[in-house]
């Protein structure tokens, strides 16, 4: 888990507590401080470290370096082969890790497993949409040519496979997708659990950010990198860029409508 100066203490507490409360609890929780933190956040982390000295592992560095750098450092600090991702503003259901471990136990060839997610605004009760992702390996590979087939905070993966694929690298806004594409090239095997086991926080700025010209520029850069690496071909490059560009150029209200109508499902 990576945190920085704008991380909200209440959300961080919720995130840590839900991981400590897993039916299969973690043997360690690695938190990376991406730059200096406000005193209140430092105190919160110190309190958790005092209560759970054998579980909490808190590392960091003086100045903010970005998510990819924090995740790269954090992965290096993880002691176990199986590593679960988690974000500081999200919530995992109590049996998330248990279910993900069961997938890997039933099929040891699986290198990375994720889940569907429910997006919420503000509180967990205000559920706005369901992100329904492909489940089996073949469907994930097909889907991944156009869109990222995982939500990063849901993942449980084999550390060795991630490192063999190059680990986290600098790719602004697309660190997770970039890692996935490199894992595909390395021959990794994937699965998603067809159940929303993680709640991901979103707000109105989520859709605004996807209309920012810098977002479009970074998306094109990422896709071009994938093309140069031969992760995708020219046809896949074109058919993935054009829809993204159209959505980016829409007015914010229409962009939000497009996401919720075509890229999300209704929460039942």
Automatic annotation (TrEMBL):
* Residue span(s) of domain Glycosyltransferase 2-like: 6-154
Q: Which organism is it from?
A: Eggerthella lenta
* MF GO annotations: glycosyltransferase activity
Q: Which Pfam families match?
A: Glycos_transf_2 (PF00535)
User: Its domain of life?
Assistant: Bacteria
- Keywords associated with the record: Glycosyltransferase, Transferase
Designated name of the protein:
Glycosyltransferase
> What protein family does this chain belong to?
Belongs to the glycosyltransferase 2 family.
Q: Does the keyword Ribonucleoprotein apply?
A: no
């Amino acid at each position: 888990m990576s945190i920085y100066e704008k991380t909200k203490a209440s959300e961080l507490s919720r995130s840590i507590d839900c991981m400590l409360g897993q039916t299969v609890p973690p043997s360690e929780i690695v938190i990376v401080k991406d730059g200096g933190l406000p005193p209140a956040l430092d105190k919160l982390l110190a309190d958790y470290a005092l209560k759970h000295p054998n579980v909490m592992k808190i590392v960091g560095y003086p100045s903010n370096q970005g998510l990819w750098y924090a995740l790269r450092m954090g992965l290096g600090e993880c002691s176990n082969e199986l590593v679960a991702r988690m974000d500081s503003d999200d919530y995992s259901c109590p049996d998330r890790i248990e279910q993900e471990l069961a997938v890997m136990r039933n099929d040891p060839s699986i290198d990375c497993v994720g889940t569907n997610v429910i997006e919420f605004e503000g509180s967990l009760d205000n559920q706005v949409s369901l992100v329904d992702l492909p489940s089996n390996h073949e469907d994930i590979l097909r889907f991944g040519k156009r869109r990222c087939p995982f939500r990063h905070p849901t993942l449980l993966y084999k550390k060795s496979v991630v490192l063999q694929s190059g680990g986290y690298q600098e790719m602004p806004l697309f660190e997770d997708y970039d890692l996935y594409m490199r894992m595909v090239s390395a021959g990794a095997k994937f699965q998603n659990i067809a159940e929303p086991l993680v709640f991901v926080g979103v707000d109105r700025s989520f859709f605004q950010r996807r209309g920012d010209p810098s977002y479009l520029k970074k998306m094109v850069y990422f896709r071009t990198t994938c093309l140069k690496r031969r992760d995708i071909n020219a046809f896949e490059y074109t058919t993935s860029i054009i829809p993204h560009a159209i959505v980016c150029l829409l007015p914010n209200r229409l962009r939000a409508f497009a996401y919720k109508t075509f890229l999300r499902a209704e929460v039942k």
